[in-house]
Amino acid sequence: MSTIIEIDEVNKVFATGEHAVKDLSLNIKEGEIIALLGPNGAGKTTLISMICGIVSPSSGKIKVKGLDVIDDYRKTRSMIGLVPQELTLESFETVSNSIKFSRGLFGKKSNKILIENLIKQLSLWEKRNTKIMELSGGMKRRVLIAKALSHEPQILFLDEPSAGVDVELRKEMWEIIKNLKKDGATIILTTHYIEEAEAIADRVGIINNGELLLVEEKKELLSKMGSKTLTIELASKIKSIPKSLSSYHLQLLNNGEKLAFNYKSNDESTGITSLLMDIKKAGIKLADLSTSQTSLEEIFVDMVNK
Amino acid sequence: MINLQAIKAIYVFEMTRTFRTLLQSLVSPVISTSLYFIVFGTAIGSRMQDISDVPYGAFIVPGLIMLTVLTQSISNASFGIYFPKFMGTINEILSAPLSAFEIVLGYVGAAATKSLMIGIIIFITAHFFVEINVLHPIWMITFLVLTCVTFSLFGFIIGIWAKNFEQLNLVPLLIVTPLVFLGGSFYSISMLPDFWQKVSFFNPVVYLISGFRWSFYGSSDVGIEISLIAIVIFASLCMFVIYRIFKTGYRIKQ
Do A97 and B17 touch (CB under 8 A)? Predict the structure, then answer.
């Protein structure tokens, strides 16, 4: 995949002195879904605002398809659609007029069929003549997506798309995002929901205090950094862990009913075989075995707290 | 290349808002101006002597049109840009492939059009109360359009500057309205004592009303050329301020 967005040592220092983005460099590949994870105030929204032209970078370069976002702003902005975090909509306008307005803003001629298809795709058809102030939060979120897609952008930014959205709509939105990717769009989303990143992202970036702590393929990240836990259910309770097993750093759980063993799945030797043999030697009988993997959330919390 | 579609989108969007609130946008200024005609034109005017051979009722028509056009231009343009700022929808404008010039053209164009419409409606309404003859119709339209555009530019600046609705009304209420009332809307500057005449010439609105009144009746407090220069200077000043606003991102872009 070729690079569609190049962010090169970008900084943003606000007039208040707040250093919101620090020397951040990142390449975004064409056609991927990248999730930027980070706590509130991490600099995620500032970063995407700089790419979209809402905030001016203090230093550094941002290029979209090789074009500078400041010098060639007309071309770069034409390629980008932005779904903002806040439900910022003209309350007294109808759904369809609001979408038509957005298409016009991006220099595109009115296209009735395209707008109607978009409205249908986002399940807004019944509400097309309804004033935005009469819509629910979820519906407003759909309108924002429709507005962002109205000029057929190649790149879509979704700033906290699931904020204030119920579980059902969230999953529906994931489907919409996946379909957009199938159509060739590049999608950058910022989110608080680790579940969201795990469900739809190809790559994950973790931002904290304006710094990009890591960016990694989601699967690799989970396998590289995610440790696994082997939980051993015992046939009968034990009072303490035998000394012969001390080198495995086991944990005794459920008042002696279970043993937990942490290991790295990508290590050459996990130690599972020798552990099971040593358990047998110690005369402990097993009832069941299960494994679990560290979630992205645990990795995220671990990274941010470092 | 200029983004004509975007200018049209902003313009149509703003004009739609005007027509959605037709009663508030067009009917209310007409009613209030009609009241001025009834009180100053008919009731009091009938007891006033002519000014420069023009009956008082007819004399105040250009001033009244200017009074409404000026205040409407400022309020239309300031509200037009302040509302997206207040609602946060300004970010959509800022992230669109639009130059500052195109944004201004869309908002100021719509605000000026609305004021022009109101000015024309008041002009027509005045015919029901007094007899009016326009000596220089081309100049009358020129002055009207220039005033609508210039004060819409000024309103745009106020809309960007304002941080809340109070500030939005502060300049029109505390500065513009007194300047318009003291700018010769209801009287000729020559009727004032010498000292106040000199003071009045520091009021830019005097030049607008004087020029506009000249286009109606051929008589004015100051020369037509001076009136034109004054309005062009004010328009240029507003354009320079707006240029600086977009260049620095003042109160719109961080």
Answer: no
Same domain? For A133 and A257 the reply is no
Residue A161 reports pLDDT greater than 90: no
In chain B, the largest separation of any two C-alpha atoms, in whole Å, equals 59
Residue showing tokens 């249908």: A120
pLDDT number for residue B233 = 93
User: Cα separation of B66 and B70, whole Å?
Assistant: 6
Chain B residue with CA closest to A153: the answer is B96
Which alpha helices (H) appear in A106-217, and where do they start and end?
112-121, 137-149, 167-182, 194-200
What's residue A296's pLDDT? 67
For B143-155, how does the pLDDT look when each residue is reduced to its tens digit (9 = 90+)?
Answer: 999 999 999 999 9
The answer to whether B73 and B144 are in contact (CB under 8 A) is no
Considering the domain architecture, whether residues A61 and A161 belong to the same structural domain is answered as yes
Torsion of CA B200, B202, B208, B214, to 10 degrees: 50
Contacts of B6 in chain A (CB under 8 A): 104-107
| pLDDT of amino acid A38 | 86
Question: Is B180 inside a domain boundary?
Answer: yes
Distance separating alpha carbons of residues B42 and A219, to the nearest angstrom: 84
Tokens read off for B115: 């004021």
Q: Is A107 in contact with B97 (Cβ distance < 8 A)?
A: yes
pLDDT band at residue B39, thresholds of 50, 70 and 90?
confident
Residue with the two structure tokens 């809402």 = A54
Residue A281's CATH number: 3.30.70
The answer to whether the beta carbons of residues A81 and A155 sit under 8 Å apart is: yes
pLDDT greater than 70 at residue A266: no
User: Which token pair is A271?
Assistant: 């130690």
pLDDT in tens, A276-297: 999 989 989 999 999 887 666 6
For residue A65, the model assigns a pLDDT of 96
> Best of A58, A105, A157, A159 to disrupt the B interface by mutation (most B CBs within 10 Å)?
A105
Longest dimension (CA), chain A: 79
Q: How many CB pairs under 8 A join A and B?
A: 80
What is the H or E stretch that residue B102 is in? Answer: helix B100-126
User: Residue A134: its pLDDT value, please?
Assistant: 95
Residues in A touching B96 (Cβ below 8 Å): 77, 105-106
Residue A281 tokens read as 């030697």
Cβ-defined contact of A77 to B12 (cutoff 8 Å): no
Q: Which residues of A267-284 are buried (b: 16+ CB within 10 A; e: fewer)?
A: eeeebbeebeebbeeeeb
Q: What's the average model confidence in pLDDT over B14-22?
A: 85
Residues of A in contact with B20 (CB under 8 A): 92
Worst-scoring range by mean pLDDT, A92-106, A197-211, A253-267? A253-267
Using left for φ > 0, alpha for ψ between -120 and 50, and beta otherwise, residue A60 falls in left
How many domains are there within chain B? 1
Range of the structural domain that residue A40 is part of: 3-223
Q: Do the domain assignments include residue A188? A: yes
Render pLDDT for B134-186 as a digit per residue (tens, 0 to 9): 999 999 999 999 999 999 999 999 999 999 999 998 888 888 888 888 888 88
Angle between helix A137-149 and A167-182 (nearest 10): 10
Q: What is the total count of domains within chain A? A: 2
